[in-house]
Amino acid sequence: MRIALVAGARPNFVKIAPLLRSLKRHSEFSTSVVHTGQHYDDLMSASFFRDLGIADPDFNLAVGSGSHAAQTGRVMIAFDELLDEVAFDLVIVVGDVNSTLACSLVAIKRGVPVAHVEAGLRSNDWLMPEEINRVLTDAVSALLLTPSRDADENLIREGRSENDIYFVGNVMVDTLLRFREKTAERRGLMDRFGLRERGFALLTLHRPGNVDLPEVLREIMSAVVEISRDIPVIYPAHPRSRARMKRVGVADIIAGATNLQIIDPLPYLDFLALERWAGFVMTDSGGVQEETTVLGVPCLTLRDNTERPITITQGTNKLVGTARSAIVNAARTALSDHARPSAPLPELWDGSASERIASVLAGESERILNHERTTSRP
Ligand code: UD1
Ligand code: UDP
Prior knowledge:
Layout: E1 2-7, H1 10-24, E2 30-35, H2 46-51, E3 59-60, H3 68-85, E4 90-94, H4 98-109, E5 114-117, H5 129-140, E6 143-146, H6 149-157, E7 165-167, H7 171-179, H8 188-192, E8 201-204, H9 208-211, H10 214-227, E9 233-236, H11 239-248, H12 251-254, E10 260-263, H13 268-277, E11 280-283, H14 286-295, E12 299-301, H15 310-313, E13 317-319, H16 324-336, H17 353-363, H18 365-369
Helix pairs in contact: 1-7, 1-17, 3-4, 4-5, 10-16
């Protein structure tokens, strides 16, 4: 069975690494990595391939940045041309980025079945581009591979058949558990940034709802500056956020905030090390909500909703919103509460999700090779 494993953006690389390893263990699969080129800076792309020990992609569509329409359209055209050249039997997509949706649409229209890894997550917030990508990708996917039971329930509620849904666990956690101990070699990082274990807060921000709206961005940054008076804050800034901070002008807010370090995005292992050693994390990232749950590090999510509710009910995550006072209060609570959460990990977040996915695909090979695109139209 010839498989295209699609990845385009930073979190996708973390998800395909264990999948690639597991698929390679099955001799009946021949897997090619297709990088769409949605992310392209070394620190957003190639550094992940190096850290995670993945070979260079077999195909790079090099689409780059653009509006949603331009980026999605460019991926669609380039992937369609690739499918003219290579006859894949299955396209595997991960996550919820524009590349995920674009390649799913191309595949289904050409009669190639799609398997979606991380299917079924829902924020129910249609202002998030990712929510649109999730719902539409799931709608065209024949195999829905879910990370949590709530995702299964969402899909059933949308009318999908249980026959299409496989609860397999979380592939991002496969990567985390594999590399967690490697962070021990990176203690020098804390010296580099003048940080002490548990004595700093780590920040990431990149959701358009937070960084593209000037008033929201300024509100969040003023909360962060206030928090940095109590604890050092380190902020590896996503290129989108760096550009927005420049355009909106936050210099007046961060002027004099000597305890706030805004740095370039970090490669995966460095970031994981800081995540592990942080006193708490503030973020709007999906993956970081999951990783902090597994690491047992308190996470304040600067959003009003999450598509990953299990990180709240069974993890360390708290939805804090984006109001300055709410963020500052939540940080003060995190600072004064020294108990480390120690709940059991969510079901099947055990490092073997990718193995289960490979087994599902092996078991479904007849259906895939018959190009049955989907069995349960809602
Ligand atoms: C994308 C995903 C988002 C995911 C995030 C992970 C969509 C709709 N969004 O958001 O779901 O959480 O990736 O990080 O797919 N840029 C660079 N260098 C790069 C990549 C991007 O400078 O290597 C800059 C460009 O100015 C670009 C902007 O970042 O316009 C946004 O990049 P884009 O991939 O469109 O969206 P993200 O915000 O990264
Ligand atoms: N990450 C990283 N360096 C950083 C910020 C994040 O390696 O500077 C990793 C993080 O550990 C997680 C993934 O990138 O594995 C999350 O990606 P991101 O937050 O960009 O996307 P999302 O998960 O929100 O889609």
